[in-house]
C-alpha cells in the first residue's frame, strides 16, 4: 500500500520531498524506492519541461 500511495502522490504532482515527509522516511533514497515512475509522471514531466523551455526568452542586448 505504501508503494501505491507514494506512486499516486507522485502522479498527482507532489514533490518527492513532500512524499518523503508524509511517509516518514529519513532518506530520499528510501522514498525513491517507494515512488515508481509511471507513464503519467513521465508525460507530466515532459509537458512541464516543454512549457518551461518554450517560455525562455533570451535578450542578447542585456547579456
Oligomeric nature of the chains: single chain
Helix count, DSSP H or I runs of 4 or more residues: 4
Largest sheet: none
Helix and strand composition category: mainly alpha
Mean pLDDT level: 88
Shape: elongated
- Written as H for each helix and E for each strand, in order along the chain, the element string is HHHH
Distance between the termini: 51 Å
Percent helix, as a range, is 55-70%
Portion of residues in beta strands equals under 5%
Rg result: 16 Å
Q: What's the total number of strands?
A: 0
Number of structural domains: 1
Low confidence ranges: none
Give a brief rundown of this model.
Helix content is 65%, strand content 0%.
Structural summary, described in words:
The structure is a single chain. With 63 residues, this protein is an all-alpha fold. The chain has one domain (2-46). Helices cover 65% and strands 0% of the residues. The chain is built from 4 helices and no strands. The protein has helices spanning 2-11, 16-23, 28-34, 39-54. α2 (16-23) packs across α3 (28-34). The chain is elongated and about 50 Å long. The mean pLDDT is 88.
Amino acid at each position: 500500500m505504501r508503494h501505491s500511495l507514494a506512486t499516486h502522490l507522485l502522479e498527482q504532482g507532489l514533490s518527492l520531498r513532500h512524499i518523503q515527509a508524509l511517509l516518514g522516511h529519513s532518506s530520499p533514497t528510501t522514498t525513491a524506492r517507494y515512488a515508481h515512475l509511471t507513464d503519467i509522471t513521465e508525460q507530466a514531466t515532459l509537458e512541464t519541461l516543454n512549457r518551461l523551455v518554450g517560455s525562455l526568452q533570451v535578450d542578447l542586448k542585456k547579456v
